[in-house]
Amino acid sequence: MSAAAGYGGQIKVSMKEDNQMCLAFESRIFDKKERQGGGLGCTLVTGFLGSGKTTLLRHILKQRDTLRIAVLVNELAEIDIDSVLLQSDSLNAAYGLSKVTLAHGCACCSTSGNLRDAILSVMSSKHNFDYLVIETSGVADPLKIAKDLENLGVRLDLIVTVVDAEALATILDVPVAKKQLEIADIILINKCDLASLGAISDVEDRVEDLTGGTKAIRCRFCNVPLDLVLNITMLINPTLATTTANTAVGIISHETLSTAPLLKIWQKPDILVSHETSRKELSHQQVHISKSLSNGGLMHGMLPMTDYQAHEGSTFLSVTFSSIRPLSLAVFQTIIVNDLRFSHDLFRAKGVLWFEENRSTRFYFHWSGQKRAEAVYGGIWESQPSTSLVFIGRDKSELDLISKSLLRAITVDGRHVFDSQMPSSLTAAEAADKFSQLMAADNRFRVCNQCQDLSQHKDSCSFSSFPTSVMFSLIGSRLRGVHEADLNATLMQIVNKNGAVFLIPVSSSREDHILQVSFGDETSPDLTWRDISTAATAAISKCFKNVCLCRCDMTPHQH
Ligand SMILES: Nc1nc2c(ncn2[C@@H]2O[C@H](COP(=O)(O)OP(=O)(O)OP(=O)(O)O)[C@@H](O)[C@H]2O)c(=O)[nH]1
């Protein structure tokens, strides 16, 4: 039976389901699965920047049951964003690992020293892992890593390539993206919720052309059965749970490694902006900028301009930006609108954000695929709040521009370090007030600033101290089974995709989901309202589309 059989509606084969293809797929997968020779079994997860590799890792860790799965993340950027996004600290605390950092620093396509050390430490670990999963960086050539794995005595069982269904066509001019597809044993066509059925079909055709028929599976958030992506069938047996006392989770501990220099970045001074090539340069840069800030000096023109050379003749650059001072959400929004959306060669941004307008809450930020900005509610800060962002692209001047723009967003004691250059007829507070009034007049919305809703969210900042922000909800309907969380998540996705306004989620419970928009002196309340109001119509029609719209038991504002 095919490994893909029995997965119901989740699975769609990328080509005509003829017997020949199924047999080819089965022999390819099972030849590998049955490969003898001992050694730790390993799946290599590859795929272009932002396709969903870390999402797959999270899914694996969530579903792993009693399996002791070690996970290594081979990060392109210099700061360890993925360990934060994977919430490795809490995962490992829960499973008894004392300290965790992830492998990264993949400055080239091959297994860097760091990764090699991490693999060796997994193999000799006292946790006695059952299986190893390695996420390659989004621009890595998996073949080279595969060869290194073989040399290290790791048994490479499967190469899984994750594809962004919405963005595949635009990244196929990058040679390494094609290579990642060609080498795959199985391809996950991810983010199917963002693409039309026709577009997904086109992606399947392209994948089939490029790979000659590698099995491709449609999915959302990489939600696939584990035995499709891991060679774990032989490990799942009733004795496993009872004979094994240690159920350590698999994000790899580096505690045995002699050095972990990147950790120093987190003990950074105030602000760090750098094009990275060497760690030596980085520490120099940290000191430089820190001194400059404490002197109140300007930070423009302080970016080291060193290129980051990647693979296959194409050059990828990464810029890291860190600040232990909060950013203005309003200015951050204008950066998305003015800089990110008009970028030509920015492929990826991700990180953790701390906003002046909502100091108690942590947000995760993603920029991926078809210029999609996404903010995810990350709960209350449990550690020292800070912002850490990574931008990956090919155009140095574009990345410079973004770095410089971000400096404008930094606030000190509630004020911008760099004053806004933009003249405006309304102040930010007046703009927020006008927007509030426009929204309050529309009974599809609940404006939450002064209402009691916010007092339930102790983690949300008090509106009174931030008159430049408005918090609100699009009203759902329990009776019709349309949850406010789904409705507002859809609204946020549409607004953030349109790109003129950047919404962040202030809370995320099933029935009560509050969004926040912030105003700078240059933000137009009318245009902001127009964007949100139009998106609300689209969100309502999407979420209520299977619901009978006219019921007399509903309150008038929900019609
Ligand atoms: N709508 C939607 N978003 C998704 C899906 N899968 C992943 N994402 C989002 O896509 C963004 C990138 O996902 P990641 O898993 O971080 O991508 P990645 O391949 O690990 O990224 P890099 O390691 O930086 O190359 C995040 O904002 C995810 O929440 C999906 O199926 N649907």
TrEMBL record:
It comes from the Eukaryota. This is Uncharacterized protein. It comes from Diphasiastrum complanatum.
